[in-house]
Amino acid sequence: LLKGKIAMTSGYYSIALKETYSALKIHKDLNNLFRTGEDLLQIGIIYQSTNEDKKAIEILNESMTFYDKIDSKQSKAQVLNYIAESNIRLKNYDQALQNLKSALTISKSLDYNANIARVYSNWGNLEYNTKNYTQAIIFYKKSLKLWQTIGSPNNEANALFYIGRAHSRKKEYNNSLEYLNQSINLATTIEDPDILKKTYLEKSMALEYQKNYQESLMFFKKNKMISDSIFNLEQSKSTKELKTIYETEKKEQLIVLQNKEINILNQNAKINRLQRILLFIGLLLSIIGFYAVRQK
């Protein structure tokens, strides 16, 4: 599971999937319900990361059955949040809302603040996608407040971006720029290119609506520059992942070949041993026969 988690964090999703499925088989054979649930949760997150949301929901629901068996409330709250996220992307808004309400109820009963913050963020996304921007801002601000309390700058920068984006959709560009600037400052401090990429673009659009074309162009160019940098990094990562997969498969094929050779050698050794035994028995019988003839 750890290998799969490391690969997933690094963005090597094919490797992560393979390693996590291997861990899943072991934990299922051992009948370890908690670890099996964890493996399935991680597989669901990997599918979600590659935009395979239907598959993600299927796997996440399976993980829920294992958490139900051991009554792991915290894990169930976490899974419900991930399921809601995929349902929002699939535009299954009614189902997503049920998931979020259930996740929030469980999380509040456990004082699980990180998951409560994620619920509010996802709920904000649901409202944003259905063009209820005022409600979206309310939920995003609730999420932001919790992330600030917890001390998670990455999530805080994201929440600031979401609030700024929602204000833009309401054509409240001054408010939008206030939050987008905070997001940029924080994302710059923590060196998060993904947040900077989307925030630069959103700021460029807000400035354009304000007819501040010179600054708008400047932030559009910043977005383009960081987008190219991320693209090159992703290309390099994909090449490295393919190389790792190729080398892993080569090693596995070599191990299979070596095992076959070892089996052949073992079989030959058994045959040689059997031949020696038969030869010895034949020789012994010949000697016995020789002495039996002489005695006659």
Explain what the structure shows.
The chain contains twelve helices and no strands. The longest helix is centred in the last third of the chain and has 83 residues, at 213-295. It has helices spanning 2-9, 13-29, 33-49, 53-70, 73-89, 93-110, 113-129, 133-150, 153-169, 173-190, 193-209, 213-295. With 296 residues, the protein is an all-alpha fold. Helix 1 runs antiparallel to helix 2, helix 3 packs parallel to helix 5 (73-89) and helix 10 packs antiparallel against helix 11. It is 90% helix and 0% strand. The model has no long low-confidence stretch (mean pLDDT 86).
Topology:
Elements: H1 2-9, H2 13-29, H3 33-49, H4 53-70, H5 73-89, H6 93-110, H7 113-129, H8 133-150, H9 153-169, H10 173-190, H11 193-209, H12 213-295
Envelope shape = elongated
Secondary structure class reads mainly alpha
Estimated radius of gyration = 31 Å
The residue fraction in helices comes out at over 70%
Element order, helices and strands? HHHHHHHHHHHH
- Uncertain regions spanning at least 5 consecutive residues: none
Tell me the distance between the termini: 77 Å
Q: Provide the β-strand percentage band.
A: under 5%
Largest sheet data: none
Q: Determine the mean pLDDT.
A: 86
Instruction: Output the number of helix runs.
Output: 12
Instruction: Tell how many strands the DSSP assignment holds.
Output: 0
